[in-house]
Amino acid sequence: MKLAVVGATGLVGQEILSVLEERSFPFDELYLVASAKSVGQSITFKGKEYKIKGMEEVVKLAPDIAIFSAGGNTSLEWAPKFAEAGTIVIDNSSAWRMDPTKKLIVPEINGHVLTIDDRIIANPNCSTIQMVMALAPLHVKYKLKRIVVSTYQSVTGTGKDAVQQMMDERKGINGPKVYPHPIDMNALPHIDTFLDNGYTKEEMKMVNETRKILGDQTIGVTSTTVRIPSIGGHSEAVNVEFYEDFNISEVRATLASTPGVIVQDDPKNNVYPMPINSKGRDEVFVGRLRRDDSQPNTLNMWIVADNLRKGAATNAVQIAEFMMEKSLVY
């Protein structure tokens, strides 16, 4: 088993290495790949030093699996080259997610659609993953009609430079900026670029990816995504209308029995999901479950998960584990 991690020096790349170590992912050889300026530098993993390699060198080494977290342009250029060499590419960027020839996978929900012919597999957007993890079991029981979601997303979703901007502002340092406005003590209703329809790319990712993962293009989805000065995870206020009616106790029981989901729903004792508690965890946390009395068959819920973990690194590693478990690696 030859494994490559592309983008190994970034926030998600570093998290992928942590997840691989924690889950004792089996490999015989590990190739760490980063941008040209990082080639030759060393990263210590499980007590061993690994030199960072360049793309061309690693393509020739033909790893069995390559987990990409190096941006869309890199994925568009290099994923096909790795795939041609027989590598399974699990890509964390948005490059392949809406390609009709590529699978968009959350293993607990739709891993069963993967086959041995899938050489490029898309990892969904972080905010989409945590939402569908909570909604998928409810969709099975009550059938989703419409989703209204507002997100409160961590600066870690933008990367190391965004975290640095927030910390600089907190210390009164006038350093490099990645956001068009201050982020500390602020909330930016602006994630990714704005489109002609007035929505951002991030908002449309949630619309389109949700439908693709759940395999239902009839679900109505509208989204507002907001960046807030937090670290530890993304939070989402989700209003869900179903075709079938529900009762809250049944919803709670369904979610509590869903693998990868933890219900924290005791507001009288101040128990509800918060990003400060999701940091470093792989589970999706759900709480503030309550009926929307303004219209029939509608539920309000609050969903929190570590965007670097289940929202990115862990989901990618789980896809790799799934492919190996089902003997889909050749």
How does this structure look, described?
Helix 1 crosses helix 10 and helix 5 packs across helix 10. The mean pLDDT is 97. The chain has 330 residues and is α/β, with parallel strands linked by helices. It has ten helices and 14 strands. The chain has an eight-stranded mixed β-sheet with strand order 3-4-2-1-5-6-8-7, with helices on both faces. Strands 10-9-11-14-13-12 form a six-stranded mixed β-sheet. It is globular. It has two domains: 137 residues, 3-Layer(aba) Sandwich (Rossmann fold), CATH 3.40.50; 181 residues, Dihydrodipicolinate Reductase, domain 2, CATH 3.30.360.
CATH homology group of the largest domain:
Dihydrodipicolinate Reductase, domain 2
Can you list the strand order of the major beta sheet?
3-4-2-1-5-6-8-7
Which fold does the CATH topology of the largest domain refer to? Dihydrodipicolinate Reductase, domain 2
| Oligomerization state | single chain
Shape: globular
Would you count the extended β strands for me? 14
CATH class (first level) name of the largest domain:
Alpha Beta
| Helix/strand class | alpha/beta
Report on the biggest sheet: 8 strands, mixed
Task: Kindly provide the radius of gyration, computed on alpha-carbon positions and rounded to a whole number of angstroms.
Answer: 20 Å
- What is the helical fraction, as a range of percent? 25-40%
Mean pLDDT: 97
**Distance between the amino and carboxyl termini:** 10 Å
Report the total helices: 10
Uncertain segments of ≥5 residues (pLDDT<50)?
Answer: none
CATH architecture verdict of the largest domain: 2-Layer Sandwich
Q: Work out the strand percent.
A: 15-25%
Which sequence of SSEs, written as H and E, runs from N to C? EHEEEHEHEEHEHEHHEEHEHEEH
Return the domain count. Answer: 2
